[in-house]
């Protein structure tokens, strides 16, 4: 059988997932290891290699035509290196070179995890059929990726669309990226919880002080919890509108743990977006929840690799 699968990797601070993905986005084989995030670089690479070797030992590996990697970032696709914030042992680490030691001559595509999520949502999810889209992950951080003119737009280094570091408050809190008032400093889960606590919100008897607990309180009518989510929604709306003004996206897809709050987030987000996206060419911009779930990183890494390699049988846009 001719090669008709993509070997995909989804690398984050807690897990390294691998899969073989077919032209319809189906995962025909899986492998997974915990990320030894606090270990040195070679140790983390050995976990990646273990995932690849498990896939390679299966019956479908001979059908692999390319490798796609979606990694926590920053990444640099131009050099094949990664420097994930949550994996300290990888700083300028030659990940693509390390992967090639196992996968041989297969072409390898590296993108950031937000770009991978965008690729997945455009190929099989909420942005399917859309020509121009921003897809976002709102979780412990805020990332994203762009689809422009019907194709994934990763940029030269694989990071394009990183909306989390658009500044929406020039006098806001300093961000580790060097900026101030970044979307991530306002809209990420930890900052939603921090802001609610500072304003007087208190966790329930179980002591859960996460953004999910704040969302539950907001749902129950707590005004402080609701206000913290409204502030996050305002920051997201400002970033989305700025992106729309630049590149005329028609839809923004929002996923990640914070998006699990549902209407606690999406209600104020849509209202705030109506205040920010006011120019005639962005007024019809819509916001949708992501639909691809936990496999988005794998499916998106496969889609990015298929687009880069122009593989027949993968209609990824």
UniProtKB/TrEMBL annotation:
SUPFAM superfamilies with a match to the protein in the record: Actin-like ATPase domain
Superkingdom as given in the UniProt entry: Bacteria
PANTHER family xref list: N-ACETYLMANNOSAMINE KINASE (PTHR18964:SF169), ROK (REPRESSOR, ORF, KINASE) FAMILY (PTHR18964)
Annotated family: Belongs to the ROK (NagC/XylR) family.
Origin species: Streptomyces palmae
Matching InterPro entries: ATPase_NBD (IPR043129), ROK (IPR000600), ROK_cs (IPR049874)
Alphabetical list of Gene3D superfamilies matching this protein: 3.30.420.40
Protein known as: ROK family protein
